[in-house]
């Protein structure tokens, strides 16, 4: 039942396996990698790439590396390395195999990357350009207009090499020189802008979170990425569509270095898939950072954030996110996935396994007038309706209860089967208090403002659920309740979507104008007493309301705080 759905990437892997494309001694025939830059927190878009790369490796008995693409010292920090490791693990994936830890850092390759750059210079495939940044930009030309060769393009290899070494030795300031690749003699006229003598090394006097001050030149992404893939024996290097135009350089670089003796064929191959766009969220790291910095959310792990840490705190399970990624599949064309698909995956994951609980979110007092004062009778309910092995939970029924405000109507509308009072010749309605007794509504109290503050009823002593007498009462309404004497009063955070606009940042719109003013409502709810033992990260279905989790940060022993993960039904569907 869990067989992965085929997609164009699996078709490629199947083909390569059949053709023996990547048969190498001692290595699995499928090695993928997930290559985050440690410059922010992972978000739901990254989950797609994680599930894809680790999922392919799992399904083909291969291996997936976690590699930090950490070549831009200005933006990267250890904090991000740590959270990314945590998030990928939490999603359920591992990069350890047969006792080996396949966790890599591009910065560990700085020596090799440098050595290959010297080779490219010596072999005439790279040169030091000393143009100003403005001239370089101008001479690059535009799409459709050929560029102009740099006056330094034909500088002797020995001269480029000497300057490059001095760049490394720290003799120049940022931007004074740059190392560029020379893919071909007429590359500056290439229709593909990425082939017009791309920069491969630049001077950056900046402290790196791992290599400290050892380097003041840093390799560019387009240079580092293919080489890192090749050094790690990656077979299928999967990236998002915007890198399609970078593939010719990827292929040229690895072929050139393979000819130079640095790598053996077959070298890794790059394949592109569509990035995931999810409605009602923003996934740009820059915009997520803005939400945090401007305190629109409480932090990266705010349950409203589409970050992995936020989704986790909100109550999403790793399984639901994996299921979601499996359902949306991979394609070669950009598109939008509706938020309801993610919420649906959560419901489908939790419905068969989440323990049930009674919770009254909008309380109204119910008094059973003929119930003896001070008496408490135990009621029992299954922890899960389809998992008898989970046993039963119990909670007391007493004279004073809490019910939902919406379960009483002073004047019932047509087809309303819950509580309403007697009127004229019509008796008050009869309903079953779920797992308790059948009651008949006898009246209600109002305060000075005309607001209903209590409902009155009588109970039938022989109607208790699970007893023989229960069957003789046929009622149409069935409502949940908790004992007002025994209930746990708990903080419950009713989360909704962060934005009201399905495409909050489309077309350059100001996404902050689309913030949902009702994204969070904090209430005190009354829960069945056993809920006081809920520990952080424990998830429940509050019957008739939705899925809730004990907040992993703010819950304390005996005093859980609950987050609504999602409602039982899609309330956003039109
Ligand atoms: P951002 O644009 O938010 O800064 P990024 O792509 O620059 O994201 P990286 O850390 O470089 O962030 O991403 C690591 C991997 O995750 C890359 O291979 C990237 O293609 C992939 N990825 C990022 N966002 C998405 C997305 N929305 N859908 C699918 N894959 C994604
Ligand atoms: Mg990136
Ligand atoms: Mg980016």
Short description:
By secondary structure, this protein is an alpha/beta fold.
Task: Report the total helices.
Answer: 12
CATH topology of the domain at 277-315 and 329-340 and 487-574: Ribosomal Protein L25, Chain P
Query: Considering the protein shown, what is the CATH homologous superfamily of the domain at 277-315 and 329-340 and 487-574?
Result: Ribosomal Protein L25, Chain P
What summary fits the major beta sheet?
7 strands, mixed
Top-tier CATH class of the domain at 277-315 and 329-340 and 487-574: Mainly Beta
Number of strands: 29
- The SS-based structural class is alpha/beta
Oligomer: single chain
Which consecutive residue ranges, at least 5 long each, have pLDDT under 50?
none
Keywords: Aminoacyl-tRNA synthetase, ATP-binding, Cytoplasm, Ligase, Nucleotide-binding, Protein biosynthesis
EC number: 6.1.1.18
Domain tRNA synthetases class I (E and Q) anti-codon binding: 479-551
Organism: Massilia polaris
Give me some keywords for this one.
574 residues; alpha/beta; seven-stranded mixed β-sheet; binds magnesium ion
Structure, described:
With 574 residues, the chain is an alpha/beta fold. Among the domains are: 111-219, Glutamyl-tRNA Synthetase, domain 3 (Alpha-Beta Complex), CATH 3.90.800; 277-315 and 329-340 and 487-574, Ribosomal Protein L25, Chain P (Beta Barrel), CATH 2.40.240.10; 359-480, Ribosomal Protein L25, Chain P (Beta Barrel). The protein is 24% helix and 23% strand. The strands form 8 sheets. A 7-stranded mixed beta sheet has the order 14-27-28-29-25-26-15. The longest helix has 16 residues, at 44-59. It starts with 7 loop residues before the first helix and ends in a 7-residue tail after the last strand. The mean pLDDT is 96. The structure holds adenosine-5'-triphosphate and magnesium ion (2 copies). Adenosine-5'-triphosphate (ATP) binds at residues 35-37, 45-46, 48-49, 239-240, 275-276, 283-285.
